[in-house]
C-alpha cells in the first residue's frame, strides 16, 4: 500500500511538472488565428486515467491556474477577457478545468469496466478529456461573455451562439482532440501497464 501511494505521488509530481513546463513553453500552446490549441489536456488526461479523478482535478486546477496566469499579458485573447471581467475570466479558466479533469477520471472508470480489450478505453478517455475541456471552456465563455462587445466583434457573420462556437473552435479543437486522444491514450496505457508490473 505504501509503495503504491509513493508511486502515485511520484506520478503526480511528474505530471504537475509537465503541466508547468508545457504552460510556460511553446510545448503547451500552439498559437494560431483565433483560439490557441492547448496540449496541456494531455498530462491531465494521463493523470485522470492512470491515477484517478482526484488527480485529474488537481492537474486540471494547475492547468486552469496557469491558463488564468496567461491572461496577464501572455495571451491576447485572455487579456481581453480579463479587462472585461476578471472574476468571469477566472471562472472560465479554473473551475472548468478542475471539473474537466475530475469528470475525465470518473468517466474513464466507467469506460474501463466496459472495455474487454482494456485498450480502447484509454483512447476514449483521452478524447473525452479534450472534449470536456472545449465544452466547459466554450460553454462558460458564451455564458459570461457572449453579449460583450469584444466577443460580438469576433462574430462578424452574426451567427448564433452554437454556430459561433463551432466556427471559433474549428480546426483548433479538432487538433486538440486528436492529439489528446492519441498521445494521452498511448502514454496512459503504457504507464498503467508499467505501474501494474511494479
How would you describe this structure to a colleague?
By secondary structure, the chain is mainly α. The protein has a single domain (2-197), classed as Arp2/3 complex 21 kDa subunit ARPC3, CATH 1.10.1760. The chain has 9 helices and 2 strands. A two-stranded antiparallel ribbon has the order 1-2. Helix 4 (76-84) crosses helix 5. 39% of the residues are buried.
Describe what is shown at a glance:
By secondary structure, the chain is mainly α. Helix content is 79%, strand content 2%.
Low-pLDDT runs of 5+ residues are none
Q: How is the CATH topology named?
A: Arp2/3 complex 21 kDa subunit ARPC3
User: How does the helix and strand content classify structurally?
Assistant: mainly alpha
The gyration radius over C-alpha positions equals: 17 Å
Residues in helices, as a percent range: over 70%
How many helices in DSSP terms? 9
Amino acid at each position: 500500500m505504501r509503495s503504491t501511494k509513493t508511486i502515485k505521488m511520484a506520478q503526480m509530481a511528474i505530471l504537475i511538472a509537465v503541466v508547468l513546463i508545457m504552460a510556460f513553453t511553446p510545448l503547451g500552446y500552439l498559437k494560431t488565428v483565433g483560439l490557441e490549441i492547448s496540449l496541456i489536456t494531455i498530462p491531465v488526461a494521463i493523470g485522470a486515467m492512470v491515477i484517478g479523478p482526484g488527480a485529474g482535478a488537481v492537474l486540471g486546477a494547475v492547468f486552469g491556474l496557469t491558463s488564468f496566469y496567461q491572461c496577464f499579458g501572455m495571451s491576447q485573447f485572455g487579456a481581453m477577457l480579463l479587462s472585461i471581467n476578471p472574476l468571469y475570466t477566472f471562472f472560465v479558466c479554473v473551475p472548468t478545468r478542475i471539473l474537466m479533469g475530475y469528470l475525465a477520471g470518473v468517466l474513464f472508470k466507467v469506460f474501463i469496466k466496459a472495455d474487454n480489450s482494456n485498450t480502447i478505453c484509454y483512447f476514449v478517455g483521452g478524447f473525452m478529456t479534450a472534449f470536456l475541456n472545449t465544452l466547459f471552456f466554450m460553454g462558460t465563455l458564451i455564458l459570461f461573455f457572449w453579449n460583450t462587445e469584444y466577443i460580438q466583434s469576433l462574430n462578424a457573420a452574426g451567427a448564433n451562439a452554437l454556430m459561433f462556437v463551432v466556427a471559433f473552435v474549428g480546426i483548433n479543437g479538432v487538433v486538440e482532440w486528436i492529439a489528446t486522444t492519441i498521445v494521452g491514450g498511448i502514454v496512459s496505457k503504457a504507464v498503467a501497464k508499467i505501474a501494474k508490473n511494479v
